[in-house]
Design a protein that fits this description.
Blueprint: H1 9-27, H2 53-59, E1 67-71, E2 88-93, H3 96-108, E3 114-118, E4 129-134, H4 144-154, E5 155-164, H5 173-180, H6 190-199, E6 205-212, H7 223-235, H8 242-254, H9 256-259, E7 260-263, E8 266-269, E9 276-283, H10 285-288
Parallel strand pairs: 1-2, 1-4, 2-3, 4-5
Antiparallel strand pairs: 5-9, 6-9, 7-8
Helix pairs in contact: 1-6, 5-8, 7-8
């Protein structure tokens, strides 16, 4: 890889992740244990469902003889459907709960050509394949270059990384700003990742997909219910420290009209920005010979 200049996309990427970590450590309670195992049910989906437009667009890159590696594959929401079209799917994920859920969903769906490897991607696990997927995992990475280099080294043909124009960890930024009384430290998304890839000497193809991120727009009937719904949206991802929780409740109550539209006496969440999915893909050196 080329030398990294002092003012570079790579350094800016790492700084954004570090700033979010600092804010989380200061305002939130420690997650404790495997945080992803505590919410595996939210990541379940039927591998035999009809692919939506975005998943179908990614599947265009797969060949029947492929071994597909799903990096940070979780419960297999993205990866397991490939097992119905390809030779094999391997999910590499550090969460024991997610690996167990992946295995259970595959068994329920009668899928026998898929397996989970419990490991972080940068561990020494030896997994490689023809097509490598990394979906919704790059936002949190301190060492983005090591991650990308290992993706390219392990892929015999192609790497596909996705990202949302407003990354999922940033989509509640308007809510957090009201609740915390300070702006949410934003994690890097595709607009920060693409310059990193350029600095690494990669020239990926980029596609903006048509489907939009599903927004939680369920209305709430009462003011107190709206306050609790806003707090629940935060708890989906973060545990608030006790002092932060009380302050957040007070701030949300005082700023409720900034978070909800009120129509016919009902509270409709309005803090989330609209987001579009991008897929960022490149052929690897092995494919080019």
């Amino acid at each position: 890889m080329r030398p990294v200049p002092a003012d570079s996309a790579i350094r800016r990427y790492a700084a954004l992740v570090a700033a979010r970590d600092e804010q989380v450590a200061r305002l939130f309670a420690p997650a404790g244990g495997d945080r992803w195992s505590q919410s595996v049910g939210r990541f379940r989906d039927n591998p035999r469902r009809e692919p939506d437009r975005n998943l179908a667009a990614v599947m265009e890159y797969a060949l029947p003889g492929d071994t597909v590696v799903d990096v940070g594959g979780g419960a297999g929401r993205m990866g397991l459907p490939f097992a119905l079209r390809c030779r094999e799917v391997i999910s590499v994920d550090p969460s024991p709960g997610m690996c167990a859920e992946f295995t259970a969903i595959a068994a329920e769906a009668g899928i026998t050509n898929a397996r989970a490897v419990q490991a972080a991607w940068l561990d020494d696990h030896g997994v490689e394949g023809d097509l490598l997927l990394a979906f919704n995992v790059t936002y949190f990475l301190h060492d983005i270059t090591a991650f990308v280099e290992k993706l390219s080294a392990a892929a015999r043909r192609r790497v596909i990384v996705n990202g949302w124009s407003v990354p999922p960890p940033n989509q509640d930024a308007g809510l957090y700003a009201v609740a915390l009384g300070e702006p949410l430290a934003l994690l890097p998304g595709p607009f920060e990742l693409i310059p990193v890839l350029w600095e690494m000497g990669l020239l990926p193809d980029v596609r903006v997909l048509r489907g939009r991120f599903a927004l939680n727009t369920a209305p709430v009937d009462t003011r107190e219910g709206a306050i609790e719904a806003a707090l629940a949206a935060i708890r989906r991802y973060d545990r608030l420290a006790p002092a932060t929780l009380e302050r957040a409740r007070e701030n949300i109550a005082a700023g409720l009209e900034r978070l909800y539209r009120i129509e016919d006496g009902r509270y409709i969440p309005a803090w989330r920005a609209e987001s579009r999915e991008l897929i960022i893909t490149w052929e690897t050196q092995a494919a080019r010979g």
